[in-house]
Amino acid sequence: MRPFLFTGAPIEGAALRAALADPGCGGFASFEGWVRDHNEGARVQRLEYEAYEPLAVREGERIVAEAIARFGVARAACVHRLGTLQIGEVAVWVGVSSAHRDEAFRACRYIIDEVKHRLPIWKKEHYLNGDSGWVNCERCAAPAHPEHAHPRD
Amino acid sequence: MAAPLYGLVLAGGRSSRMRSDKAALTYQGEAQLERAVRLLGGLLPRVFVSVRADQAEEPLRARFERIVDRHEDLGPIAGVLAAQAAHPAAAWLVLACDLPLLDSATLDTLLREREPGRLATAYRSSHDGLPEPLCAIYEPASAAALRAHVAAGKRCPRKFLASADAKLIEEPNPRALDNINTPEEYARAMTTLTRPATRVSVQYYALLREQAGRREETLVTDAGTAQELYAQLAQRYPFTLPAQMLRVAVNAEFVEWDRVLKDGDAVVFIPPVAGG
User: Is the Cβ of B89 closer than 8 Å to some Cβ of chain A?
Assistant: First the structure.
């Protein structure tokens, strides 16, 4: 499979996992990011993801290649969902197969962290009260806003 | 068979905000009026200059074929009515003389998109979406409707086009029809014209897309760098994100803010990301 993909359809972890199977591997680690029903005290009804795809795919492929090179794992891939997602759906999937578990865990962690920080992907939260907002964009941009903690995820 | 198309350069304004005759303002050694007549002259069989009665013998205007307004205080509509009365069988490409950024692509597109079966063909303003009446083609059949508009006490040519059966088209260069009315606008236009203009495309995502009200646009800019381009766009759109919070990509690669823009660059400003 391609090292990094966007999809508009639900992410099926089992099928993706099968694509990373390798007889030389003794372990597989994966991470799934799910849509949660609350964020920063607000009750979330659904999320909307969009991406600048040409750059995000290129950068996403680089991240996966970096993880393979840095941790010496056999295979790795990441799939990110776009469009409207309901509570409980999988927004992002990372899978790594390798000879041993330690590098599989570390490579998996590296990929999800870098994906969150580097890829031009945005999410808009729609709240139960009818409001909505782009995560990390709206409150920081207000001309005079009270001190607040930046969301950690 | 389409009616013959003549050019009409409007030079009858009072230039009150400019405090000097706008037709005579020069850019790169050429008066605005001369430039407008020259641009139309290259495309149309006849070009006239629309003047008020007291301007008819003014030396700059007197070098061209003139059509004298018959109405006082009607604004640009007076010029169009006078031209239609003088040559009722002609269609008119009406052009303001104070469009220093006007380019031939804008005129070519207007001619190509002309639909003689409608009353008019005009650009939709890149600023407010309303028709641009002063770089537009008025077909002969528009004369009666225009007279009725005036008889009803109206004098706004934009409202005329907005209510008439006019074909509205998109501008190939969103700044081409920026007019200048004040010494400050003149100074800005001079700066633009003497700096190299670059044609870039900009795509907007997430919050910036919503605030710009569009996904993408192509624009001609005098911004030298990505940083300057964002500053210019922030004047036009209600962006709330300061540049320090953004990253910028050109041609699908992250670049530094001082990246020099080149013709054909595809620019994307990247709001704070939130993948995962």
Answer: no
**Which two three-digit tokens encode residue B242?**
């300061």
Q: How is chain A split into domains, by residue range?
A: 4-141
ipTM value for the complex: 0.88
Per-residue pLDDT of chain B (276 residues; tens, 9 = 90+): 688 999 999 998 888 888 888 888 888 778 999 999 999 999 999 999 999 999 988 889 999 999 999 988 888 999 999 999 999 999 999 999 989 889 888 999 999 999 999 999 999 998 888 999 999 999 999 999 999 999 999 999 999 999 999 999 998 888 889 888 888 888 888 777 776 778 999 999 999 999 999 999 998 888 889 999 999 999 889 999 999 999 999 999 999 999 999 999 999 999 999 999
Q: What is the DSSP string of B65-96?
A: -EEE-SSSS-THHHHHHHHHHH-TT-EEEEEE
Alpha carbon of B40: minimum distance to chain A alpha carbons (Å): 42
Using CB atoms within 10 A of its CB, is residue A18 exposed (0-12), middle (13-18) or buried (19+)?
A: exposed
Residue B179 belongs to some domain of the structure: no
Assigned domain for B175 exists: no
Contact B241 A122 (CB under 8 A): no
Fold of A4-141: Aldehyde Oxidoreductase; domain 3 (3.90.1170)
A35 to chain B, any CB pair closer than 8 A? The answer is no
